[in-house]
From TrEMBL:
<dbReference type="InterPro" id="IPR050926">
    <property type="entry name" value="Aconitase/IPM_isomerase"/>
</dbReference>
<dbReference type="InterPro" id="IPR006250">
    <property type="entry name" value="Aconitase_put"/>
</dbReference>
<dbReference type="InterPro" id="IPR015931">
    <property type="entry name" value="Acnase/IPM_dHydase_lsu_aba_1/3"/>
</dbReference>
<feature type="domain" description="Aconitase A/isopropylmalate dehydratase small subunit swivel">
    <location>
        <begin position="528"/>
        <end position="581"/>
    </location>
</feature>
<comment type="subunit">
    <text>Monomer.</text>
</comment>
<dbReference type="InterPro" id="IPR001030">
    <property type="entry name" value="Acoase/IPM_deHydtase_lsu_aba"/>
</dbReference>
<keyword id="KW-0479">Metal-binding</keyword>
<keyword id="KW-0411">Iron-sulfur</keyword>
<dbReference type="InterPro" id="IPR000573">
    <property type="entry name" value="AconitaseA/IPMdHydase_ssu_swvl"/>
</dbReference>
<protein>
    <recommendedName>
        <fullName>aconitate hydratase</fullName>
        <ecNumber>4.2.1.3</ecNumber>
    </recommendedName>
</protein>
<keyword id="KW-0456">Lyase</keyword>
<keyword id="KW-0408">Iron</keyword>
<dbReference type="InterPro" id="IPR015928">
    <property type="entry name" value="Aconitase/3IPM_dehydase_swvl"/>
</dbReference>
<feature type="domain" description="Aconitase/3-isopropylmalate dehydratase large subunit alpha/beta/alpha">
    <location>
        <begin position="7"/>
        <end position="407"/>
    </location>
</feature>
<dbReference type="GO" id="GO:0006099">
    <property type="term" value="P:tricarboxylic acid cycle"/>
</dbReference>
<dbReference type="GO" id="GO:0051539">
    <property type="term" value="F:4 iron, 4 sulfur cluster binding"/>
</dbReference>
<dbReference type="GO" id="GO:0046872">
    <property type="term" value="F:metal ion binding"/>
</dbReference>
Length: 654
């Protein structure tokens, strides 16, 4: 049978299960990626499990999120991460080296490999012919220890690209077009695989832009072929020997198919406050802006900055506009400086920031209240920018630069200038000086972990009770993101290694009283939350499951879950349930008490059972999608408890 690329990648890494959509499969992981907002917890989990040495081909810890150092917290945690990478045998990318996804692409990504990262945009490296997926930190810790990742076998969604992009339209508009057609749930349960003659016009970094925002469609991953464009990229990075050709077999088919004619696309923009709220930029042209921001893992390439520099060259941005430039890798910044593009941006009035995630995760560059911000970032969920009442639009660098000049949202096709044709550097900088290689094992085993005062171990978590009466502390609507469950930004992320402290920010965007009410619920046996469709979309941060669990969350009952957050809830012993009949959502209210009896038996005996609403004579049919393996995790109260028990018995991890 002819195979597509995704099937080839999965088959070559399959360690358990059948390649039937919806069935659980186990996949061997070749590489892992962690960043400092999630990596501290991963390193603590490695320590708790007694892991001696990373068992992957390559694992890398990047410092790119928490690089504003207003006090000791971030700096101390970076020392902890550095010591942990030396102890466990990981690469360590120092502060200032750049954003994890493009740096990993430059230095470590290999066609034909699997990559698991504790960051939802890990899927960006699918541009290199990899199966690259985001996951919660606990899953990544287990992968580092040599364990498989367990996921539901996805469907493969083939997207045929034809034609060639017109002037003023770029790769960002391709993924925005797919979001315009299918919104933020369109890729759930799927790997998106791109093919077709249009690919020859897209560079490896253009493909990174598209693959990165597959996460915004809810996709398990995004896969591109490893072709001559990937070979060219690796050659430029001094790694041509890492290239292999990987393409779909002639006659390969897909579970679902779609076609995008690149020649027919126009500049697009996502309005607040969802990446799926996409319209042609011409529809909102003239809207005044306060900020125009270029950078992030969603537009990390040389051309993304260079095209903006050429648009503003010799001009000055409009008064009152903050024009923020966030370089994405140190070696790329070096080339932009060499070629004069940074000078053009600065002379036009730009503000240059250090290489890192920065404002994409709310770590600086927060916009003013009540003002519009244009960003080339992947997400515009409420409050993600660092401003609670933000108004963020997502767009291409072309739109961001044109709008900075005009002081209002501008269709770049209306500028009185030819479209800049950007030439990539012939000999791009290759800089490995801030990427520390793993220590040899004999040296590594003598390294002691450095733990600053902000690091707190994960508290013990009890097993799943058999009988519970749980008050519903929150009832929410559709598309609740992990940014709303637990915000990012400079206020919150410094506590990522301190669960009791970071829990104080849980659900604050939705209900500021949740923390106090959650703490009260702990002594009474915990609580439940209720939500709509696509609950937990967005970031892979496991703190969005851990913090509510610390505050007593035992059951999340929703219409359906986003993939990574669902897995994180299971990993930490929060029972994820869905309504069998979606109309039952309307029968229950915040404050109602859910009664769950004989629960441990019911979870093991089948996927559906009934729960009651106390005092209301209401019964609700619910279901879970747990595999047999995950049922065992749930009964133990989470993956940490299960792993500890097995290690104590001298058994393998899972």
């Amino acid at each position: 049978m002819p195979q597509n690329i995704t099937e080839k990648l999965i088959k070559s890494h399959l360690v358990s299960g059948e390649m039937v959509p919806g069935k659980e499969i186990g996949l061997k992981i070749d590489q892992t990626l962690t960043q400092d907002a999630t990596g501290t917890m991963v390193m603590l989990e490695l320590e708790a499990m007694g892991v001696e040495r990373a068992q992957t081909e390559a694992s890398a810890q990047y410092v790119d999120h928490n690089i504003i150092q207003v006090d000791n917290k971030n700096a101390d945690d970076h020392l902890f991460l550095q010591s942990a990478t030396r102890r466990f045998g990981l690469y360590y990318s120092r502060p200032g080296n750049g954003v994890s996804h493009p740096v990993h692409m430059q230095r470590l990504a290999k066609p034909g490999k699997t990559l698991l990262g504790s960051d939802s945009h890990t899927c960006a490296n699918g541009c290199m012919g990899m199966l690259a997926m985001g996951a919660g930190g606990m899953d990544v810790a287990l992968a580092i220890a040599g364990e498989p990742i367990y996921i539901k076998m996805p469907k493969v969604w083939g997207i045929k690209l034809t034609g060639e992009l017109p002037d003023w339209v770029s790769a960002k508009d391709i993924i925005l077009e797919l979001l315009r057609r299918y919104d933020v749930k369109g890729g759930v349960g799927k790997v998106i695989e791109y093919y077709g003659p249009g690919l020859k016009h897209l560079s490896a970094m253009d493909r990174h832009v598209i693959a990165n925002m597959g996460a915004e469609l809810g996709a398990t991953g995004t896969v591109f072929p490893s072709d001559e464009e990937v070979r060219k990229f690796l050659k430029e990075q001094g790694r041509e020997d890492d290239w292999i050709e990987l393409t779909a077999d002639r006659g390969a088919s897909y579970d679902l198919e779609e076609e995008i004619n690149l020649s027919e696309l126009e500049p697009l923009i996502a309005k607040p406050s969802s990446p799926g709220n996409v319209v042609p930029v011409s529809e909102v042209a003239g809207t005044p802006i306060y900020q125009s921001y270029i950078g992030s893992s969603a537009n990390p390439g040389y051309r993304d900055f260079a095209v903006a520099a050429e648009i503003v060259k010799g001009k000055t941005v409009a008064g009152g506009v903050s024009f923020d430039i966030n370089p994405t890798s140190r070696q790329m910044l070096t080339d932009l400086v060499k070629d004069g593009h940074i000078a053009s941006l600065l002379q036009a009035g730009a503000r240059l920031h250090q290489a890192g995630c920065n404002g994409c995760i709310g770590m600086g560059q927060a916009p003013a209240t009540g003002r519009n911000s244009l960003r080339t970032t992947p997400r515009n969920f409420p409050g993600r920018s660092g401003t609670q009442e933000d108004s963020v639009f997502l767009c291409s660098p072309e739109i961001a630069a044109a709008s900075a000049l005009k002081g209002e949202i501008t269709d770049p096709r209306t500028l009185d200038m030819p479209y800049p044709k950007i030439k990539e550097p012939e000999n791009p900088t290759v800089d490995t000086s801030l990427l520390d290689e793993p220590l040899p094992y004999e040296e590594a085993r003598n390294v002691e972990l450095y733990k600053g005062p902000n690091i707190a171990s994960i508290p013990p978590m009890d097993a799943l009770p058999d009988e519970m009466e749980l008050p519903i502390l929150l009832k929410m609507g559709d598309n609740i993101s992990t940014d709303e469950i637990l915000a990012g930004g400079a206020r919150v992320l410094p506590y990522r290694s301190n669960l009791p402290e970071i829990s104080k920010f849980a659900f604050e965007i939705i209900d500021k009283t949740y923390y106090a009410r959650g703490m009260e619920s702990v002594v009474e046996g915990g609580h439940a939350i209720v939500g709509g469709f696509n609950y937990g979309q967005g970031s892979s941060r496991e703190h969005a499951a851990l913090a509510p669990r610390f505050l007593g969350l035992r059951v999340a009952l929703v219409k359906d879950f986003a993939r990574i957050h669902w897995q994180n809830l299971v990993n930490f012993g929060v029972l994820p349930l869905t309504f069998v009949n979606e109309e039952d959502y309307d029968q229950i209210e915040q404050g109602d008490i859910l009664q769950l009896g004989d629960l441990r038996n019911k979870v093991q005996q089948g996927n559906e059972f009934t729960i009651n609403v106390k005092g209301k004579n209401i019964s609700i049919q619910v279901s879970h999608a747990l595999s047999e393996r995950q049922v065992e995790v749930m009964l133990k109260g989470g993956l940490i408890n299960l792993v500890k028990e097995r290690l104590n018995r001298g058994q393998t991890l899972l």
